[in-house]
Amino acid sequence: MSRFAGRRSGGGDSSTLIIIVMMMMMSFVFIIVGGGWFYNKSTDGGIIGVVCNDDKNAEYELDNQLKCKFVKCKDGYTADSTGTCVGGKDTNLSVTSGEENISVDCEIDEITPYTFGQCLNTVTGEPLSGDIDNCGTGRQRKTPNVKTVQIGREGSCPEQTHAECIVACPLECKAPDELWAPDDGAVCMAGTRKLGVTVDVGGGTLVTYCGEGTQIKKLDGERITSSMMGGMDLEAYKNSINFNVCTSPTSKPCKVECTNATQPVSCPISNYDIGWLYEGGGSGTVYTKESAEGLLRGDINSSQLELEPAVSRQDAIDSGAFVSATGAVNNDLIPKGYKIKFKASNEYSTAWLREQGCSIFVLEEAQAPRTSEACTWTELPGACYDVGCGTLQQKTVDHNIALQAWGNGSCDKPREFTQPCTTRTTPCCDERYVGAWTEVEGYDGCVEDVDGQYRRQSTRPGNAACSNSNTKLGALCSYDCKLESLEMEYKGTMTSSVYPGCKGEYNKKDLTSISLRAAKGGTACPEININDTFQSSDQVNAKLEGVDFSAVSVPDFKCGAWLRGGRCGVSNMNYDTGTCVNGNNCGEGDNFSGQVGWYRKPSFQMNC
Fold first, then answer.
1. Do residues 470 and 487 share a domain?
2. Which of the pair, 86 or 125, is modelled with greater confidence?
3. How far apart are CA 418 and CA 57, in angstroms?
4. N or C: which end of the chain has fewer CB within 10 A?
């Protein structure tokens, strides 16, 4: 299986692939260093054996390199200036008013809400370079651009996530062998032995080798024939073979016929291909095109290979290959070099082939390596907010990207944290913490002050952190003595005759107690004698006001069933029901206590 996401494979020739069989006159030393650690996936997709325990109050996830990445503090915790999740929701609060925990979510920039990093290989986490074996679909970091920072412990902001991205794969050259012509100065080679060229092999012995080999060739459009085009026009045929991408010299088969004066030479060809080993180990080292091609031509040896210089972030920005603000990479503007691969097989080991002076080389065009530079971040302080009362205010500090990561540089967003402001929170006795003053209405809200005057009292909820009184007295108030209730005792039914034919019958009730409300700054309560003959509440109130209560004649005490019998000359009176035509009945008022119906005495009839 390929270790690259989106790796492409196929037969035929390629502009990025040069194969030549060379007889190596020197030995190559390869050190393949393998290392790493293994992990197992559980059935639910989790990782077994990886524990993120840096901060027990924080939540973590594993990034694409299986490293612990901080996500956020757990509910009820907030990051301090060191990035550690501390406290609970009420940490450092002096009071709890329901208003001090004001929380506002962050605001994301409307024009550029997110910035995106390089498109990364989903398996290796390395940037997708657009090389033939490192292209296709990947993922890139998606980081919010914070415009205004969240406020309060419950304020939130979108997390750094990933989005899908695509790096286009290069077109492959499909030109047939017939279109390739020998490059200038290139000869047919069998390993490092030039075929058809007489050479001195030592001791004055001259040898001319012959046989099959390979020769570095370049594409020649003049060799296109009508039979190749098969009815297509020239432009259509060139597009069908991706003619414009066939720019690199490529090794092709060649042959020098043997004669009696030549010596045949060949290297064994493996039929059991098991892959390739990269020069430099691992996924390969990128060398300059000049030195890699020089090695294939036999002009230099492996110790003279030159590394393709790594491209720094600033180099890429200066050339326009990298737009740090958006994470866009123009792979066409990044220099290209070659990786060198050696064939490996079951039939012949690479070591044995080298000992015999035979190796099969492949040149693979590859993008220059990138330096590894991490993201740089700018701190973005938020607005100060209260976290209680009587303490310094706090603010949340978030981060925005200043420069995107480059190469294999990390780009984990730092935790937002809180730090104190220079301004103090609202005093604990401020209205937002102790509540607004509210007047106590009615008789109970009229309270005597230290001078013996009565004033309207106001109260507020208050809190334990404020030592000021939660009551105060305001404007003067006054209440007179007032009748609150009367209690009656039923004494039975009594009858009387006013004159022949008029028989009065009534319920006898005596007044047993009078309850008075004490005065507050107003008229005081007088002496009340329950033996006084009161016939109505108005008469009691008249007594309280110090006037002649006998002048108040309309009774309002509950009458019961009374004055039954004759008519006694009152036309508006229904003596059977105890009601008046005009509606002035006993009703639900206080119970009547005096004698009613006596001659020239206030009576129920007078209501009518």
1. no
2. 125
3. 16
4. N
